[in-house]
Amino acid sequence: MLVKVVGEGRPLMIRRPDWQCENRNQKNKNPHFQYDYAKVVFKEDELKTKQWADRQKELLLDSRLQKVRENIREIAPCKSMAKKIIKYYQDNADRMDYKRYLSIGLGIIGSGAIESAHRTVVQKRLKLSGQRWTIRGAQNMLNLRAIDMRHKWDKVIELAQTYHEKQVV
């Protein structure tokens, strides 16, 4: 098993600007800007905001990014904000194939979940005092940590027993 982290941003940490719309200061706390954008578009109508944003989320999870961009263009009272969001989606489209990621078992999507998993799986084991790792050794340890975190030791033991039985015969 190989532990992989798929992110929308560049391989290193990126700075995301605050999204501003005319005189409104809408700071983005969500990697998918459709919620913030919907709040600007639908103002006080929380139901419409939620419905529209949830629909865009469904489309993103189905890897229909082009449709999301079209929907943003359709309801664009704040053209500068819409352009920035659309540009973000265009620039990061190759890293946003969520349907494929989900189909191959990469079920965690979102920076908060990834950061939490990084802290839990990686840092708690690899950053202990005095430790040094080769890339191969770190990858092997991360594979074991991922197995442990998913409670799959029974599969590892079964695989090891099968391997051992083949060696004995």
Structural features, described:
- With about 170 residues, the chain is mainly α.
- The chain is built from 8 helices and 2 strands; from the N terminus they run ββαααααααα.
- The chain is elongated and about 70 Å long.
- It has a two-stranded antiparallel sheet.
- Residues about 1-30 have low confidence and may be disordered.
- The chain has 2 domains: about 20-105, no CATH class; about 110-169, no CATH class.
- It starts with 18 loop residues before the first strand and ends with a helix.
- The chain has helices at about 35-40, 45-60, 65-75, 80-90, 100-105, 110-125, 135-150, 155-169; strands spanning about 20, 25.
- β1 and β2 form a beta hairpin.
- α1 packs antiparallel against α2 and α3 (about 65-75) runs antiparallel to α4.
- It is about 60% helix and about 5% strand.
Could you spell the SSE succession in H and E letters?
A: EEHHHHHHHH
SS elements, strand count: 2
User: Can you summarize the main beta sheet?
Assistant: 2 strands, antiparallel
Shape: elongated
Structural class: mainly alpha
